[in-house]
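Subject: sequence -> structure tokens, single chain

Hey, anyone have a minute? Need the predicted structure for the following. Not urgent.
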Amino acid sequence: MLALFAWALLVGLEVLWIPATRVNLPLSWMAILVVWLWAIVQSVKAVMSYLSRKAYGRCVAASVAIAITWAVVWTTNWNALYVESFFALHRDTFAQLAIAHENHRPLVVPWWMRYLSVDGEVQKQGDAIYLPVVLDQWRGESGAGIAYLPVSKTSLQTSAGSVGGPVHDLGDGWWWVE
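Reply:
Had a minute. Here:
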């Protein structure tokens, strides 16, 4: 039971990694590392307890379930999942922002979008608008975010020392930029 809770907690931490980095980057990395170790230890304890009771069928079933869970948690791109789900939930607001940009009106950023952005603002860069989501906090040499690009081959300044381009299409002219 603790193994199941540990894996669920790990998934929660991985999904919320982007907002957690706003609070404290080293602490968020340590939390994920500790929960990874805790999930592995609890999983091994569960398998060993089935072995000690000679419940070999349950041991094999638990081992297979743990292996599948580990593979899913390890291989999932949690940042992309977070951004895609966030974009899907707020597609209408992103569309309103794009329309305001195309009509040269002021870009009114809702409170939740300020939370998603590193600096709380949407940046106009030529014909594009850019919402910085991830920024290298040590040196500011790399960044990533969500951008509205009329032309998908547009390059944007993602941080003080980095230029990025569209990597993943979110739909309706919006892209994940790295």
